[in-house]
Amino acid sequence: MENFETLLESLNLKLFERIHSQTTPNDKKSLLVIQKAVREILPEYTYLEIGSYIGGSLQPFVLDNRCKKIISIDKRPKSSPDERGFEQIYLNNTTEYMLENLRQISSEGIGKIHCIDGDVSEIDTNVIQDKPQLCFIDGEHTDEATWRDFQFCLKVMASDGAIIFHDAMIIYNALSRIVGYLKEKDIKMRAYNLPDVVFIIEIGDFPIHKSPLVSEMLFDNHVGYLKALEFTDQYRRFANKSLFRFARNLKLKITKANVTK
Hints:
The chain is an alpha/beta fold.
């Protein structure tokens, strides 16, 4: 592979090409922009990830010499619940398989990975000795699991850092709860979305948003907004099938809820 610094500087998606990642090209670009922004703030950092699967999203961090420690947490299930109403099936979901994939990228880089198999509810926070400045949550896509993952990250991370959530259009109820919780506790924070479905919460003084590349994405916030709406359009099309439309119109006629007075 070409020089890591060169690839990161140009936001080259080759950094994700060796191992399949369940992210869109825009997601990958956003993750690289965040990584660059963290490097602008800190000379070195620790990265924690919940839901590593086969290692796709770990690739740029394994290659990054300024990322001194990687903590990978995964329950390693054969299937996982999902807020969309079905179970997500995972093949070859073992730590050994993930590490073998990453070894092909950097045999030296995998030496900094600390793997923990299990749910965060079963993990003692004291086992996290190196406080991460950057956390990525992409585990079980349910609101309750996302809430638990967030609580764990908040306890173990540095006072100044950021938590990234993937698939924001699925776990949006959890994100709303999390933002509300931080405001209620008067914890300094800033939250925003990057394309396509990457949601970031800065905790304390960790101004990723001031990075020029992040700012540029925020100015073009229509990209992530429209992508999320496109995702939900499938449910609107389903809800507008003739049977449901008939039922809604019948209810409106009976209740007269659509009458403007």
